Amino acid sequence: MAKLSAMTAAATMFPGILFASEQEEGIPDGANLDWKKGPCRFCGVGCGILVGTEKGKAVAVKGDPNCSVNKGLLCVKGYHQTMCVQSKDRLTHALVKKNGKYVQTPISEALDLVASKMKETIAAHGKDSVAMYTSGQSTIPEGYVASKLMKGAIGTNNLDCNARLCMASAVTGFLTTFGADEPMGCYEDIDHADYFITWGNNMAEMHPVLFSRMLEQKTRRGAKIIDFATRTTRSSTASNRSILFEPQTDLAVANAICNEIINNGWVNKSFVEKHCNFSKGLTNIGYGTEDKFKFKDKPEKIDFAAYKEFLKDYTPEKVAKYSKVSVKDIKYLASIYGDPNKKVVSYWCMGMNQHTRGTWMNNLVYNIHLLTGKISEPGNGPFSLTGQPSACGTAREVGTFTHKLPKGVVMNEKHRRLAAKIWKVPYERIPAKPTYHATEMFRAVDRGDIKFIWTQVTNPLVSLPKTSRYRPGMEKDSCFVVVSDVFPTPTSDVADVILPASWHIEKSGLYGNSERRTQHWDKMVEGPGDTTPDAWMTIEVAKRMGYGDLFPYSEENHVEEIYNEYRQFHEGKKHGMAPLEVLKKESGAIWPYVDGKSTQWRFNEKYDPACKEGSDFDFYGKPDGKAVIWQRPYEPAAESPDNEYPFWLNTGRVIEHWHTGSMTRRIPVLHKAMPSAYVEFHPEDAKALGIRNGENIKVTSRRGSCVLPASINERGLPTKGQVFVPFFDENMLINDVTLDAFCPISKEPDYKKCAVKVEKA
Amino acid sequence: MKKRLGIISLFVLLFIAFIVVWNFSYQTGLEEAYIPIEKTATHSYIPSERGVFERSEFALEYANMPIDKNHQRTLDSYYDNRAYHGAPPSIPHTIKDEKSLGGNTCLQCHENGGFVERFDAYAPVTPHPEMINCRQCHVAQNSETLFKPANMAKVHAPKVGVNNALIGTPPMIPHQIKMRENCLSCHAGPAAPKEIRVMHPERINCRQCHVPTDRLVTEIKAFTRTNSYNNE
């Protein structure tokens, strides 16, 4: 990009939009900006941004018009993202806790301490006494070196990440149904679909740029948006139809839709016969609220007749009774999916994933698309959205979960051998058994089983469920805590060593977004003080532990070197990654990247070169190329409202803040628009309790309590008997109240459902 | 004989019919008189969010509408018509019928706008057409003279082009949005003041990019936390 003046900067913000001269009055003139491309730092949509720098400082952000994701548009967070970098309490130097006080320490000394502590702990208590907890915001190289250090060098599977809290159910959903992770479609589906059905998903606030693309199709083409949720939101008000359901009953409604599809003869018979199998798994699978909970599903093949018989319990009439969705609405939803002339995309994110039956819920929506054959083609398909910029690219593809390897899983000998070969380590070193998933990892810290933990790019003491247990757990002397971050957080408050990390544009990196798009950016500005990229800190610690030969990367070029090493894992038509030269030039490329081309729709022979010839559709993740339609029943939530705790508690986000707010709250514009969390009531509940807007309310569960101002009829409207709290506010920790029940298959906690009582504080 | 049987059976039928009808009406008469009460919501449904999308069906028309350069409103005249920044605008023209409620008169022009020959101007569009007692808040200006002059200072109204947090970022919303949730009514169409007329009305979801900055009347301090390790 050439240097542009600020005047034209404003005019080029939105492609195709001209500004009258009156509207540019007051915009400072003469700024000479240098624009560099990259992906946005925040959500999983993965918008392309251009950052304008002047004299080594980032001063402007605009949407990248060449990026097909956002076509030049961003959201409130995207436009103002770089404003957090200069925050006054930025962590600029390493801090080591000595006698209860943090002492500024040279970074190399701090890294010495981290490495020696890690070595000592392993020597004294074994490999499984040290752990690393990383993030779906870690870049691909950051995730890769963390995995290589823990699994390849040290030889422990004690590596998990915060994507366990947001995407694990999506992963297990994909694996159980298709045998291959990540969506088959892409964002271009929006341009072709007639109907968008969003399942428990407030896209207007959480995925605003995609929502704006949907709205554009709504006004221009008459496409329709159906909002299926437990809370009325900004998305509901913009939708053609809003349908509300009782928490947890989405399982039953999805089954009722399948039942209607079958009974009305809307099944795409040839598709189901050629490309689908039917299976069932165990039922009454528990909730994982007890320590060391274990579960293993036992899949069993069934036939169509058995599946049809099972669905008899899910007639619209029966389901309407407990889901509080009318028979008419269930039939309406089914008729949209069932109409062979309508193209339908289903979208979902945390509503379905953060669910004690999250894997099942993902399976059930796939059932609907498989029964009707509406999958893997432009405008037709289920699409699981992600919350973090590299939940797909790093957590899922590099595999920073306890059971994962960059390709495949630790349980599989072939996969372990491949990893050992590329990493150049003895294959026996990679243990074949997964250890702790996120929740269990922090339980192990609390129990004293883990004696050293290093967290990177995440803030678990705000984002974990039931922080009322895990905060005191991390404060215990039994565990040495290292926290790498850009800003102080409640997690760094309990650290023994705090490492100052570089922010997004202060380092080079790669992210991977929800539509399988890998995106690269180059370092744009220098970070302050001793700040260092997370990948480099991991490498430095590895070297100090004596694994230098496994990490032969250079400081200037490590991102490139690591990516080229990592690419070997995915070679082939099924997951080939674009070469770095392409990613540097273009605004991302979608894998499988085959013969210089992105594959936009997987599993469809027309678009995907990995499909068998003549197969039409080939779900090649499964050995027989067939996707699985799962028989999954409705089971109640882990905890439901009762006399003592009469309200459902639902938690989530707001458009202004991203996750735990450690970045967005330091952006003055966003903080001022949304200065604190709140507890949202249905107006009739508020009236019955005599609660007025803004009054302080104490929300209490069996685990803890939290005081927040009441919000009535403002941002959202929960259904009667439900309260909603956004979780971004570290001063009002709602996760002290939430329950750490999780999906037994994915181990992803349910933040959307627990029982609470409310009283005036 | 046949005739008689016919007459008897006719009467028997009539009698049975009578018993059935009488019984039915007696039974229904026993039920309590019941008028189902339709539950109407006592609240309007998240007003701050809903209003945003209210006029979105006109968005494409707004986008394609040619600009009538000779009849543009300016921001100055827009502010002149208000006692202070944020006050309800006064009515700058004579009113046809003093006794009428807004629904019959004001809304004829101010619901959807359009050119008014008599005033040689485009009628501004109200962001809240559901509130029909217009003159509860909007007063007429029937006199140019004052009873006694006053010293009320006018609050400085926000200026255009200075509301960006960073160079070129979408301007923030510098005014409160209560009763003005529907952005398009003032920021789009021929009656919109030219300085604040949006050039991309088809985007609809305004608050995707434009952040409100004037949400609360009291000042909001920057985010602070008790633990800060710097300068320690």
Key attributes of the depicted protein:
heterodimer; A: 761 residues; alpha/beta; Phosphorylase Kinase, domain 1; Rossmann fold; Dimethylsulfoxide Reductase, domain 2; six-stranded mixed β-sheet; 31% helix; B: mainly alpha; 2 strands; 24% helix
Number of domains of chain A: 4
The level of helicity of chain A is: 25-40%
Largest sheet of chain A: 7 strands, mixed
Looking at the structure, what is the overall shape of chain B?
A: elongated
Q: So how many helices of chain A?
A: 26
What name does the CATH topology of the largest domain in chain A carry?
Rossmann fold
Determine Rg of chain A (CA atoms, Å): 25 Å
Largest sheet, strands/sense/barrel of chain B: 2 strands, antiparallel
Quaternary = heterodimer
Q: What structural category characterises the helix and strand content of chain B?
A: mainly alpha
Average pLDDT figure of chain A? 94
Order of the strands making up the biggest sheet of chain A: 5-4-18-17-16-6-7
**Mean of residue pLDDT values of chain B:** 85
Radius of gyration of chain B (CA) equals: 31 Å
For the largest sheet of chain B, list the strands in their spatial order. Answer: 1-2
Please describe what this structure looks like:
- The complex is a heterodimer of chains A (761) and B (232).
- With 761 residues, chain A is of the alpha/beta class.
- Helices cover 31% and strands 19% of the residues of chain A.
- Chain A folds into four domains: 6-84, Phosphorylase Kinase, domain 1 (2-Layer Sandwich); 94-166 and 389-574, Rossmann fold (3-Layer(aba) Sandwich); 169-279 and 301-385 and 624-631, 3-Layer(aba) Sandwich (Dimethylsulfoxide Reductase, domain 2); 647-738, Barwin-like endoglucanases (Beta Barrel), CATH 2.40.40.
- Chain A has a seven-stranded mixed beta sheet, with helices on both faces.
- In chain A, a hairpin with a 2-residue loop joins strand 4 (94-98) and strand 5.
- Mean pLDDT of chain A is 94; it is low at 1-27.
- Chain B contains six helices and two strands; from the N terminus they run αααααββα.
- The interface between A and B is large, with 79 and 55 residues.
